[in-house]
Design a protein that fits this description.
Layout (H helix, E strand, L loop, with lengths): L2 E12 L2 E12 L3 E6 L5 H8 L5 E8 L2 E2 L5 H6 L2 E4 L11 H7 L7 H14 L1 H5 L10 H14 L4 E5 L7 H16 L3 E5 L3 H7 L2 E6 L2 E7 H6 L1 H8 L3
Parallel strand pairs: 3-8, 3-9, 6-7, 7-8
Antiparallel strand pairs: 1-2, 1-4, 4-5, 9-10
Helix pairs in contact: 3-6
Length: 238
Amino acid sequence: MTDVLRLENVVAGYGRMRILKGVSLQVSQGELVAIIGANGAGKTTTLMAICGMVPVMSGRILFHGEDITNLPTVDIVRRGLTQVPEGRRLFSDLTVLENLEMGAFQRRDRSAVEKDLEACFQLFPVLGERKKQLAGSLSGGEQQMCAMARALVARPSVLLLDEPSLGLSPILVRQIFDVIEELNREGTTILLVEQNALKALQCANRGYVMETGQVALAGPGRDLLEDEKVKKAYLGYS
């Protein structure tokens, strides 16, 4: 399989503080890859470094073979890498439709954008019902759906998801993961950071376990589910 995203010994952080201490990972075309780990392990920082929002001090990040290390975020998005950030970060005083249209701000193919908006409303019917409603008035689950749809309107070749199930009820968690798996089946390559290690590894082709800014374990999702260390530390049983 062809790697579409590769990190090679990436060291990154804020000021003099190194959060990532030599992270290497890869995501191949069509894969769903999960990153799990405790709070503070460097999961979100990894996504932020990929998107150019945290400076990389050494190492490099390749996207479709091109070195995108420390490129401006807008240029990285233009190349087809889109992130759904932790906490959703919607424009709360704009409508659902206006938020989705913000995802297409770099596109000029208006007729194709309209088709993609309709596809999002088919994927998330509740957004179609509430497209004129202010995003800030949506429930937590609906806001997460809106954030995912906004990213999809950008037509990413790789979708980065940061804690999509955070703060949601078990029913909504299932719904969100059903959508994530459907997107992946339809061909979207996904790199998923998720605190729900069980759900993440159940749907992932491969997974990485991060500890204190480094990759501690890596392997197929199903194999990591059976790893005794993963069971004890992240799944709550052994």
